Each structure stands twice: as structure tokens, then as C-alpha cells.
Amino acid sequence: MKIQSQKDFFAGLMFATVGLAFAIGATTYTVGTGARMGPGYFPLLLGVVLAILGGAIMVESVVVKTADGAKIGKWAWRQIFFILAGNVLFGIALGGLPSIGLPPMGLILGIYALVIVASKAGQEFHWPSVLALATVLAVGSYFAFIYALKLVMPVWPTFITG
């Protein structure tokens, strides 16, 4: 049995591994039944579906021929760094770092920081489009999480709101 598409095989393997990990992790919670779902029901179901999807992609990668074998390219270290750095910066901006005395900067500034840093991962960086995307995401997040879901989290930096 020869792998016809390396990209599909390893993508399927990643999906199956993450799905199984979530499914196994969800069993530590009360699963319940379909009529009376517990907190572990949805993660278990989602993990199983993801694992099945990953398995199907792996089978397809062995069965369906591709022209060049769809080889895996080099690791995109620059993109990985900027995407992870943007997410870490968002977490720090949202919650602050009390250990060094950095107060929370809030949801809005956190989203702007995330979008600006993560946008550096792309091939092109245009300030107007990056700021437009950050604005749309900040407004949408405010309405979804603060207004609609009534979540309690800092929206603006504490030195502004008091």
C-alpha cells in the first residue's frame, strides 16, 4: 500500500489524532444521552466525527492517485511564528500579566493586536485592509460576546475605563 498524496495523508492523520484526543478527553466529563446531554456529549461527538473524517481522508490519500504524489513542502516557520505570536499577544492583551503588573488591555485592543501581528504572516501587508479587518472583527466580537451573550470581560484597557 503506497501513499498517493502525502499532504492528504498527513492532514488526515492530524485530524484523526486531534479528534481521538478530544473524544478521549471528553469521556472524563459526564456524557449523558441524546435527550439529556451532559457537558462531554458535544466534544465527544465532535471528536468522533473529526476522527472519522481524518480516517476517510487518509484512506482517500492511499486510493486516489495524484500526478506528483502531492509532496509535503517545507515548514512555514515565519507563518507559524506570527500566527502563534498573534494568539499569545491576544491572550496577554485580554487578561493582562499580573505577575509583571501589566493590566488587561481589553477585547478591542487585543483583537487589533492579534490581527496586526497575524497579518504579518502573509505575503503582503496593507495597513488599510488590516485595520478594516480588525475593525470588523472587533465590532463583531463586541456584539457577539458582550452584547448578545452578555459575557463579562474587559472591553477597553483598565486605565481608560477605571
UniProtKB/TrEMBL annotation:
Q: Does the keyword Disulfide bond apply?
A: no
Indicate the transmembrane segments per the record: 9-29, 41-63, 75-94, 100-118, 130-149
Please state what the protein is called: DUF1468 domain-containing protein
Could you tell me which InterPro entries the record lists for this protein?
Answer: DUF1468
Q: Which domain of life is it from?
A: Bacteria
Q: Which residues form the DUF1468 domain?
A: 10-154
Keywords in alphabetical order = Membrane, Transmembrane, Transmembrane helix
Species of the source: Paracidovorax wautersii
A Pfam family annotated for this chain is: TctB
